[in-house]
Amino acid sequence: MALDHGLLPFFPLSNFFRNMMSMQNESSGTSVQRSLKIENLVKEYVPGKPILNGISFEVQGTNSVAIIGPSGTGKSTLIRCVNKLIPPTSGNVYVSGENITQLSGTALRKARRKIGMVFQEFNLVERLSVMENVLCGRLGYIAPWRAWLRKYPQEEINRAFELLDAVGLVEFAHQRADSLSGGQRQRVGIARAIIQEPHVLLADEPTSSLDPKTSVEIMELLLELSEERGIPFIINIHDVELAKRYTSRVIGLCGGGIVYDGSPAELSNDNLTEIYGGASWLQ
Amino acid sequence: MSSQTVHKWQRFSFKEQMARFAVFFGFAVALSVSISTVEVIPEFLYDAHIQAADLLTRMWPMDLAYYPKGIHAAMVETLHIASLGTLLAIGMAIPVGIMGANNIVRIPLLNWLAKLILVSSRSVNSLVWALLFVAIFGPGALAGTVCIGFRSVGFVGKLFAEALEESDPGPIEALTAAGAPWPSIFLKGYWPQVAPSFWGIFLFRWDINVRESAVIGLVGAGGIGMVLDTALNLFYWDRVSVILLSIFAVVVVAEILVTNIRKRII
Amino acid sequence: MINNSKQTAYGDAFKVNWWIRAGWVLVVCYILYAANYLDVSFARFIAGLGNGADFLAEMVPVNFSRWQLLVSNLLETVEIAVIASAFGIFFSLPIGLLAARNLMPSWLTWPARLFIVLCRSFHPVIFAILFVKAVGFGPLAGILTLIFASIGFVGKLFAEAIEEISLKPVEALQASGAPFISVILYAVLPQVQNRFIGFSSYQFDANLRNSTMVGIVGAGGIGGTLFAAFQRFDYDFLAAILLSIIALVMVSEFISLRIKGVFQ
Q1: How many angstroms away from the CA of C164 is the closest CA of chain A?
Q2: Confidence of residue A9 (pLDDT cuts 50, 70, 90)
Q3: Is residue C134 helix, strand or coil?
Q4: CA distance A147 to chain B (A)
Q5: In angstroms, rounded to a whole number, what is the distance separating the alpha carbons of residues A210 and A120?
Q6: Number of compact structural domains in chain C
Q7: Strands C11-12, C7-8: pairing kind
Q8: B2 contacts in A (CB within 8 Å)?
Q9: pTM value?
């Protein structure tokens, strides 16, 4: 059971029951606990001046973590070190026990299939349809010639339609991605990440390009889908209010290190000043 | 959570699929018919590599000493032919382009005539134009310049006509409403809209014309092509390689020049 | 009192752009200089027009009597263009991809770009002469010539188009663990597809036009017949050949337009 003992009291009861249900209905059929463990991650672009200086934390099961901090502290770098889009200088990243940082080439590519990522600017292929964009998440699982001829297995097509239904975009399945609004495009991005059946879901400022109302909808969707499927969820976000409302754990980065790691409720103004510096913007 | 309904997903509608299939089928047929009927003499193919190697050995070492006396003057002449020819083309393209723009000249027959002139200019190859003008004006740079001019009219004129057709009708409407006479409407309404692209078109075409001017001499229209023709006829392959090298150098320099100027303007 | 000058209490009404004026003056000066250098004078031009009139007179009436020769050569011309375009465009895809600096490392892009530049710098007729020497007279030389010419044009534009794409979908698909070819198929090609079709069809037209000419140096197609007609002063047959070439190109442009419509 995904009981991170420090956080249980803060789960609403309905979430608690939903978690129990989803663990029984887990579609991937594995009973392996999905987890992400980051161990002493260091990243230096310029030798001697590390952007990330020994980051360590763990996320498991249905839990979600929001990473907050000022721009340039390395939030984006941290997220991209997890799937090695940016190779870390040293340290380890374990996804469900597998050490990603040691991998390269085909092994890395196969490991990335287990890591879903949602991007700030959606990163969809504009000219392709919504359906084709969602199925892009499965490209790591099928041979290129099948991908070219669009010969996806029927169960993947079914799953794609189900996910489109879950994000509310079934009627848009055949429309071109560039005809959608920002919020709709992000939903497609989310469906694309979830169809990978990932062991970890990463989100790099997914709401920064969206208006406040849509941001709330996207946050709710992300949390709902990741909890339902027992996927640990890490999100980079600079809107502290959204982070506090929706995630169960907040990590504050500053100067390359973690200066706060705890529940949103305990995040005080003092903590925020330490993370972001300067009290004037809090008023 | 899982449903039993089978979802069908097709990328293209049936009509689109048929059209695409028809096109691919057409390509395949054209290609296979062509390959089977084209006459390729197998003996020539078999010793092609020997011939190629022989050619390369004769072309090396290059006769670099030939450059100053034989090549340089001809190269300069080539560049002048290209530049003057392009300018001539622009001069001719403006009236023809205006005649072909259906929002300015509304007589369909004239539009059609202009489009015909432009298409003919593009369809007939520069070497053929060169042959024509050498027969009319005699060998030399005059034939070459007129040839380049006539050849480029199609390209420049087509772009010019398209730019005119796509220009914003708003300012035109305003000037007509204010009672301006037609030449003024053209000068102050259409011209400012298309002028900026004009220099880009000139540079683009000049770059191509440098390449064309280098070879029209093969049929007598002046420039370095005539030197190349002589060297080929006399089988001086080492001079041929120097000539080719100079052509290559000039074309590359011209292209770098054009790319940099376009970056500044655009 | 009517003041006719452009000057007012606020200053000049129109600002003079000296650069543009200088530019125009330069152009006119150049024309005069170059015309003099090349011995291109209006007088010669007018004299030549007299010749031109004679020429035109001999071309009319147009003589189609040797139409079988004409048609069989035209067919060969089209075949050369079709084969060369198919193979040329086919090879430009990987070569253009290798030349894209935003996707490939420099040890791959430099040779690819050099090859493309070599193919483009020389007019096809030069390639034709060299290939005629290597593989003999006939359409094979023409086909090889146009394959290289196609790679030079389509390869360059394809590489440029790839360098202008947004890399964001590429990042997303790499992050999800898709294999390299699938990343190219889904994130790169859809962005450049329209432009690629555009310049492939342009190149087919260009190949058709060029294949009418490579025959002049013996590489097959109608060029040979055309050159022969010139040398024998068969100007009325020449006119027939020219008209058929123009008609052929117009028809093929029309067909290309329709085909583009199907794919876009």
Answers
A1: 14
A2: very low
A3: helix
A4: 12
A5: 9
A6: 2
A7: antiparallel
A8: 27, 158, 162
A9: 0.76
For chain C, the 3-state helix, strand and coil shares in percent, each to the nearest 5, are 80, 0, 20
* Domain around C40: 15-54
> Across-strand partners of A234?
A65, A202
| Measured CA distances, C217 to B218, B239, C121, C133, C209 (Å) | 10, 19, 19, 10, 15
Q: Which CATH architecture has domain B66-265?
A: Orthogonal Bundle (1.10)
Are residues A65 and A249 in contact, defined by beta-carbon separation less than 8 angstroms? yes
Q: Which residue of B has its CA nearest to A166?
A: B1
Quote the CA–CA distance of C36 and B148 in Å, as a whole number: 17
Pair of tokens at residue C20: 């543009």
What is the C-alpha separation between A154 and B7, in angstroms, rounded? 8
Q: Which of A49-53, A134-138, B223-227, C38-42 has the lowest mean pLDDT?
A: C38-42
Decide if C100 contacts C94 (C-beta within 8 A): no
Helices C42-59, B141-165: inter-axial angle, 10-degree rounding: 80
d(CA A241, CA C245): 72
CATH number at residue C203: 1.10.3720.10
Q: Is the ipTM of this complex over 0.95?
A: no
Q: Is residue C5 part of a domain?
A: no
Q: How far apart are CA C85 and CA C37, in angstroms?
A: 40
State the average pLDDT over residues C93-113. Answer: 93
Which candidate from A25, A27, A131 shows the least CB-CB separation from B9? A131
Q: How far apart are CA C256 and CA C261, in angstroms?
A: 9
Residue boundaries of the structural domains of chain B: 66-265
Q: For C105-158, write each residue's pLDDT tens digit.
A: 999 999 999 999 999 888 999 999 988 888 888 888 999 999 999 999 999 999
The count of CB pairs under 8 A between chains A and C is 83
